[in-house]
């Protein structure tokens, strides 16, 4: 594969990202396009995509969050927007007064581009973003047998959770 680059997701990328999501997850985990839009407006900095030759091949949605709780999968209205205002005008110090971890909500590589280290590069970018923002804990909810992939980044299982109507695993890693 040619070189790839990582950049922020823009609104016009949403259809492609939604398509990658639909082709990657079991239907119980698929979120509405509106939710994507709301997550992006909640924390733009943490919503990134990978591009090669002008094609988007992977994405990640991530944001500051509350330790020990999976960020909810919702239908239409996104929980965060109802409960917290978007973080655009909130400085990093104030973000830490509300949130005590950084959360990777969805990281996904287009099926045709898997096993080429794209997922690993994207993961490393998010970890570096969380570190840069002074978070000590990164948390996520593991589905679809992704735990072995995540363990290589130091994630360990905190607890089983009900997610999309089935069992998933809340995991976290402590940044050194
Ligand atoms: C999980 C996922 C992101 C991996 O992305 P990828 O680009 O194929 O992975 P990479 O090529 O970067 O793999 C990096 C390493 O992880 C390993 N790996 C990849 N998927 C793995 C899995 N499911 N289990 C164990 N190891 C895995 C690779 O073998 C590779 O190991 P190496 O560095 O020793 O060679 C991708 O399969 C995906 O998008 N799945 C669907 C969405 C999903 O389930 N996301 C995770 C939700 S928490």
Can you characterise this structure?
This protein is α+β, with helices and mostly antiparallel strands and 176 residues long. It has a single domain (5-174), classed as 3-Layer(aba) Sandwich (Aminopeptidase). It is built from 6 helices and 7 strands, in the order βααββααβαβαββ. The protein has helices at 14-24, 33-42, 79-83, 92-98, 118-132, 147-151, and strands at residues 5-8, 47-52, 55-65, 101-109, 137-142, 156-163, 166-174. It has a 7-stranded mixed sheet. β2 and β3 (55-65) form a beta hairpin. The protein starts with a strand and ends with a strand. The model has no long low-confidence stretch (mean pLDDT 90). Bound molecules: coenzyme A. Coenzyme A (COA) binds at residues 24, 107-109, 114-120, 140, 142-146, 148-149, 152. Coenzyme A binds at residues 24, 107-109, 114-120, 140, 142-146, 148-149, 152.
